[in-house]
Amino acid sequence: MVIRKELSGVVAEPFSIGEAGAEFLGNRPSRIPGGLLMVCDSGEAVVCVDILKYTLLPGYGLLLLPGSIISTESVTEGFRARYVYLADSVFQEATFKLEADFFRFIKEHPVVRLDLDSLDFVDKWAALVSCVVAEADNAFNSRMVGNLLQCLFWKSHDKMKRFFGRQTEKTGRQDEIFHEFMSLVKTHCRRQRDVEFYARKLFISPRYLSYVCTHNAKRLSAKKLIDMQTVLEIKIMLETTNDPVQKIAERMRFPDQSYFGRFFKRYTGQSPLAYRFRRNEKNPPTP
């Protein structure tokens, strides 16, 4: 199986299956337009899904919903993983009958350790899909792949309900509040960065929200988490658009470009323009 070097070359395809190496995820934040499934076979990768950190080890699986942001903090040279990428339309068609709790679980647990039964299923499933894809002249090729994708997600849903159901049933109220908060931040951080806004949405006090966050996110406050997601959104815009910094500041509802620049530099150590130049491997602008 050919090792794909970059995810950016995969997301342009409606469906792709293959093997990923150490360079696959890249070293910059990327918003995934479709669904991505990865199973680590060797090596280790430390990744951030949105702003939360996870470690991919052999036997661990990663499942990202469309719109997720992923970045790599570190990866070993021997990292190898099998991947399946689905464009958003293909993902929606394969998962539209699944229950809402499946998607909630994936949002809260994008990386899980797979049991032996799941790993064996993935091996057999990948081999069958590869055979179907290889038959390019098969008139029912796309339908067969679609049915196999539905089979994969139904299997995942069953595993989630049977093996993780008890865990989710025992989830405490604080954990539920934290995950609801993170979902709200992802949705609203371009317009709202006040802790009070999110506390009102959750029907709790700002003080209690900050308490919940510090106990569920390695002592990071609610405000810090909001700002981290905001910086991540800014990085994506700086890297994937040619919009002037002033326009990005306006889109993110900052009062002016100067405050926007100070905010970004406080978290990254450089100005938005310098960040854009550096990430594009150009010389930074002169002061």
N- to C-terminal distance: 48 Å
Q: How is the biggest beta sheet arranged?
A: 6 strands, mixed
Helix content: 40-55%
Strand content: 15-25%
Oligomer: single chain
How would you characterize this protein structure?
This protein has 287 residues and is of the alpha+beta class. It has helices at 88-95, 100-108, 116-134, 141-163, 165-169, 173-188, 195-202, 206-216, 222-240, 245-251, 257-268, 272-279, and strands spanning 3-4, 15-20, 30-31, 35-42, 45-49, 52-56, 60-64, 69-75, 80-86, 111-113. The strands form 2 sheets. A 6-stranded mixed sheet has the order 1-2-9-4-7-10. Helix 1 packs across helix 4 (141-163) and helix 6 packs across helix 7 (195-202). It is globular, with a radius of gyration of 20 Å. It starts with a strand and ends in an 8-residue tail after the last helix.
